[in-house]
Every structure is written in structure tokens, then in C-alpha cells.
Amino acid sequence: MTKDLTPQFSRKVLLVSLIFLMVNLGIYGLRHMAEQPDALRSVAPKLVSEMAENIEVKSDYDEEYGPAKAGQEIFSGTLIRTGEAEFAELILDENIIRLDEQTEIRLEKNNFTNVSSYAPDTPRLEIELLSGSIWVDAFDHIQIQSDRGIADLDHSIGIVTYSAPINRLMVVTGAANLGLMDGDGNLLSEFTVPLHNQVTFVDSQITATYAALKPSKLKKELKMTPISEEILADEWVARNANDFGETKKEFSDSLITSSLGYKIKSGYQTALSYLTFVPEARRALAFEKAKTMLVYILGGLQESGDLDEAKIMITEFNELIAQRKDDPELQSLVLETLFAIKYSRCGTPAYLLKEALMAQVAEREGPHVYSVYLTDFRRALFEEDIQGAEIVADKWLDSWNAILTEANFEEFEKQTQILNHTFLTHIDDISPHVLGVFDEAGMMKIAFAEDTEEARFEVTTDRLQTAASLIAAYRYGIAKQCLKNSYLDLDIENLSSDLASTQIFLETGKLLAQRIEYAENVLHGAAKPIDETKFRDYFQTVKRDEALSADLRKFFELDKGEIIIATEVTAPTAAQVAGQFLDARINVNYADISLMPASGFYYKVVNARLMDRGTSKSTPSFDATYDFVTNSITDVMVEGRAYQGSFTLADIVTFLKTGGELESRIPTPKLEEGIELLITDQEKIEALEGQAIAQDVARQLAYNQLSSYGIVIPEVKSGIEILDVLNLNSFHITHALVNMDDREEAIKISFDYHSGTGAVSNVVSEEGVTLIEQVEAEDLAKEVTSKILEVEEELRVVGEFNSFAEKNDLQFDPGDLTYNKDGQLSLANLSLATLGLKVSGLYDPETGKFVSVSHELLSHKDIEVKEYFELLADQQIIAFMAKNDYAISEEHIDSTYPFSKISISKLEIDGSVFNFGLDIANTKALKVTGTGIENTIEEISLQDLSDLITQISTSIPETTESPEDI
Fold it and tell me: From the CB of residue 264, how many other CB atoms can be counted at a distance below 10 Å?
């Protein structure tokens, strides 16, 4: 008999259905509870500090600052400030904002909502830096604004400082966008600051003219410079900048390392997905399954290196994401995982996953995500993984096709700047293959830029800087390749010589190429530094050979790469020198010709006289220094007047005979000629070009000398101007820096320098103030520091007196005020505006008194300013009234400094008593009352008042009563 199974089957179906229902309800409930405002990521940043109670906060609802609480959430509008030796941190997911001591900020806006975790065009946090310094580790887009600057950091680390009026942005990793604003908060201009660079400016510096500057001009104007080694060595900076761990902590605790563990967990999730019918529960399971895939790829597959299985799993992961591309939580997981995967070598499962995630994010958010390739490029170089660096560089370049670059040029330009500065940071590890990527990126920048010539100039500058860095790293072969590629790619040969990019390449490129030639010929390509002294001798020998006379060419000989001076060569005689002068019809005695103790054949010649008469019928004479090699003269002295420059003998004859201007005729080498020959190695450098090298080396030697004395010159080429192109020993130094121990900013000065004697003269400050007339180079830093302190003290004292004078109605011409070495002010024509008084004296700002002061009416010593003018005012009023036939004394005068109101009271005239105000400027009496005056007279001249008093006196009958009784 067949058994009836229907009741049992119904019970089993019912039981399974109940289980399914409970599973779905449980998953849904868990997911529903998780989807509160903190579902995806934290919404409000939290304040963290070991001593949080010493940090102060003030919200929009508070009237005063109050102590913070550890873990306190910070909302928009809240102010935070730290005290001395205190710091605070704001933590928002992976974002860290650290406040240094004595810092105050305001959280202006928190633009994050629980709908989307990433919006690249909108900062997640907008912070106003009121004062102090903050360190920003920005995983998301964080914006920091000060009075005139606005810095945007995104997946980068930077330091923003504002100490009114000084602004500074330092970028440690990645890059930051810096905007400049006018006083009304309007954006004037913006540009990218790459990693390891900083920009410093003052509020008043940023004017409307910045809106018209091109990026290259803007960077020069703001003097964008590398961050100092001291900053990069800071523990906090170094820890964040070099954090090259493999994964973030959020993955390290949940990685699945065994295939069995993954199969069990994945199988369980797959089974649940088949049994789940609630949409929200299915979405939650999809999220968990995606996360399980990620942690297994980064765990077990990364350890085993199984690329085939990794590719299969990545394909499945992409399909899962594609099915739920509108799920914000899954998109957030993709983004966070992408930036959580630290450096792993190319061709590993982790890197395959990173590329897949990057493609998804780029499709949705745009090409800014390709900067991850540049981060990997930098980390590959840091780990000396040259092959990996080449692969990543190629991947970055391949990501930017023509259409994408044209549509997103600003982002492409930003990333090329990061690439350029990565080159400079890791110049020792750059390979020829990576150099090709660098070159191609530059050409793309020129091709798609709106201003082609501006872009060409920037690319040219970057390539020359890279070549110079390669030479400095003794990598002469690849430096040569860099210059050759640049010359050909930039089409220098066919460009107009008027273009700035052409000029800078012809000038700087030639100097770099000449060093490469020296390294090849003398160092034989060995990776060792160039000896600057030997380098100079080499080019003076080889390049100036054609300029030397036939008798002196043997003076220099080249033997096995070293310069050897032939001992058998003797100097020309006085008779030979006199013969040269005679050829120009100049007579000079042998006794007046002496060989100078210097390299080369230089002679001191005195009392040289023309053989022909000049226009004045006289035979003029002169003194000079004569160079027998070039047949030219310098340091010309005529009748006590000195002429700077180099001249031919014919020039001096013409000048002395006819008058007019004496102009230098010795040609300056033209660096523009022959660069293509030098770079393509087709022929030797011409003789005059060696003079250019000699000039460059002379600058370098002057730079080295001054550096040894603590004088820093940021730009050797532009900061050192050669005054004597023949002897190469006199220079004008501009924009030199002297550091002071107690201040952050260096002192900027300019001066004249003689490398032979070490003499410095005409030292001038950045503001144009002459600091020192003459000083030895070794004492320059100490003397400048001392003088700057004196100038600053003078400015402080004068400034305080200006403020004091303004508050007390005192006026003076700045030219009539002198500061002496005792810290006192000598004043001439110091006037009190209300009375028209002018005095002269010596003022001591420490005591606030006149040491001595004089006026024709009253002189005094050691007296307060106000006290003196009160005494002087009485004397002036008495003298003024006497001039108008009124006899008064101090007891009649009622006045108070600054004497805007003067009253004359109880003035007795012919038995009558009068009271009135006094207007000295207009010789008038005001509000007159007294004997015989029925109604107050508002205004009357002193002469009319005198006549009125006379009339009153004659009309009043005589009385025996005293004036006091009246």
C-alpha cells in the first residue's frame, strides 16, 4: 500500500518557507538598522586629542569658547582653537586634519551627505584657517581657505599656514590646487602646486594684476620652490609621505587568505541570494559578496600569485558591479578599495584589481583617478622597481588619448606637473624608457593647450630642469639624450629666435651641453662630479684657442684631460706692450708698464698719452689695465673719472680726441649660435662660445664663494650679473638671501662683489635701503643681520612716533626726522597744527620726552611733549595778543592741549572786564561777554573789539568801586 506523503511534504515546505522568511527578515532588519545617517561613512568629523579638555571650541550657538570633549563631533560653523604646546586632530574616515599649536580654524561647510560618498567637484569639508598652521591628510577633497588663498587637496597631503599677512602652502604628496583671491573674495587666478613644493605670499601682494598672469609667470612671481629638507624630515611628514604599506588597516583585519575559507563564505552568500526575495536583502547580499571577492583577491590570491583565478574573479566582480551600478554603497566600496590598495608590483592580482577598479571609477568620475598611476610610479621608483616604474608610466600615458586630453586638459596638465616633479625627486632612477614617456607628455601638453607658446615655454623649462638634474646626478649619457630629444621634439632649429621658449633653450641648453661634452672628453662619461675649476680651465683652453695670439697659443696645452701650464713660456716685455700702444698712436714709457700678479698677461699702465692733439689742442693722458691677449683695456681712469667696461685702444683714442661717450666694444658671446651643432655633435663649439662657459663658471665660483660665507643665491644665472666680461671677477648680485636664526623668512639683499679681493660694496635691502657701503664678504652676513636689526628698530621707533604724532595733532616732513645711533629722534620743523607752531629738538622714545627742544619763544630740556607745548602755547598766545595791543598774562589764558579751544577770561581794560574765546588763525574773538555788552557777541575781529572796548570805556561813568566789585 502506498504511503500518503502529502501532510509530511506540506510541513517540510512550510518549514523551509518559514526559514527563508526569517532569513530575509533578519537580513533586511540588519541592513535597515545599518542604513541610518552613518550608513556609508561618517558624516561629521570628530575632534581627537590626548588633552582634549585643553582645546577650545565655539559653535554658532555659543557666545564664548568652551573646552572640547574627546570624540566631540564638529558641525558647520564651529570654531576650534589650540593654545601653546597644544594640538588637535579632526578625524573624518580616512581624512586627518591636524591643528598645530596657537591655531584657530572654522569648519565652514560639511558638504557630505549619506546619499553619495564621493563628489569630486565639491569639497567634502570647507575649512577657514584664521591663524596658525594645519596639516591636511586628504583622502577626499578638502578645501582650506585663508584671507587671500584657497587650497584644494584631494588624495594628497599638505601643510597650510596663515599668520597674517603671510600665506604658505606646502605639498608633501600628490598635488594641490592653489587659488588667489582679491580682498573681496573674488578668484583672480589658480594653478597647481606639485608634490614637495611650496608657495609663500603676503596678502597685500595679491592684486588684480594676478588675474592676467600666465601660470609660468605666476609661479615665478610667487617664487614656487622645493620644500626644505628640514620640513620633509619632520617625523609626521615623513611618516605620511613614505607610508608604502600594502593595504589599509580596514582590509588587513578581514582578508581571506585560504581558498577553502573563500569557497565556504562565498557559497553561503550565493545560496542565500537564491533563497532571498526581498530586494533590500538581495542588495545587502550583493554588497557582502562583492566585499568577499575583494578581500580574497587582496588576500589569498595576492599571496599565491594566481593570476588566472584573479582574472576570473575580477571579471565576476565587474559583472556584479555592472548589475548594480546605481548602488551608492557598492560605488563607495569600489572607490575606497581603489585608494586603499597601496603599492603592489605590476602583474600581481592586487594590481590587476586596482586597474579594474580604476577603470570603473574613471568611467563614472572622470580622469582625475589616473593620478593613482602616478602615485604608483613614484612608489615604484622609491622601491627601486625600475621595470615596474616603466610599466606604470606607460599605463598612465596610454590612459590619456587625444579626445580625453582635449576635453580634460586642465586635469592632464595637473598630472603632468606631478610627473615632472616625480622625475626630479627620483632623478637617480629614471630610465631612458621613462624619459620617453616624459617627452611624449610634454608634446601632448603643447598640442592641446589653448596658449601654445605658453605651454611650449613651460615644457622647455621642465626639460632643461630635468637635464640639469641628470647632470647634477652624474648621469651624463641620459642627460645628453634628454637634450637631443628636446631639441628635435620642440623643433628649436625652425622656431623663431624671438620666442621665449627658443631663447631659454638656446641659452640654458648650451650651458648644459657644454658640461656634458666636458664629462665625455675629460671624465670619459664616468659617474662623478665635474670639478668646476678644471672645467673652467678646460674651456678657456679649448674654446678660446682661436682668440689667442699666435705667440701665446702654446701657453696652454691639453695632456690626458689635464691642463698643464708650459714653464718655458715667458710674459711679453714692456717694450712689446709699448709697441702695441704705439700702433694705436699712444705713447707710454717702459717704466710706466708693470705686469700684474694675476693669471694671463695683464699690465698696469699709467700716464699713457696720445701722440696727436685733441679738439682742445691738448694731449690727453689716461691710466688703465691692459690685456695683452685680447689687446683691450679695462679700468680706464681719465682726469680722475673712472670708466667701467672693456675697450679697444682705438676706442680710447677716439674718445680722448673728440669727446663723446666711451662705450665697451669687446663682444659678448652669443649663446644662440651653433646650439644645433653642439647638441647633434656635428662639430666643435666655436671659440667665442668658450667665453660663455667661462662666464657661467665664473658665476658658479662666485656663488660657491658667497655660499661659504652664508650668502644664498637662489638663481645663479639671473642672480649673478657679470660686470667685467673680460676679467670675470666683478659681479652684481641680486636677490641674495641672508638667514637669521630667530626668523622664518630670509633677508633679501643685492650688492656688488669682487671675487678676487672678496670685497662687497653697495649692499641694498629689498626695499631699496642702503645697508652697507663696504664690507668683506666673510663679514657680510653678520653685518647685514646687525644692520637689519638697526633698520627694523629705526622703523619701529619712527612708526611709533608717527602714531604718537598723529594722535596728538603734530605734523612733520619725513625728511626732517633723523634716527641716531642712540635710538633717539632728531626733529626739525615739528609743528602743532592748531597753533602753527614749529619747533626743533631731540626726542627720546624710551621716556617719551624731549631731551632738548627749542623755539624762539621758549627752549627747554627733559620735558614731556604735551607739557612743553602747553608752556609754549601760553607764550605764543601772550605774544600774539601783545602784537594786537592786548596785554595779558598766563592767568588770563584757559586752554588745553591740543589747543583747539582757547579762552581769555577776566581781562581788565580801562576798568572794564571781558571774557572771550580766541581764534588765532583768523585774529578774532569769539563769544565775547563783559562790561557794557548786553548780548553775547558771537564773533568779532580783535581790532573791532578794541574799538568797542574804547567806546564802552568812554561811556561808563567813573566809580570808586574796584574792578572785582564790578
Answer: 12
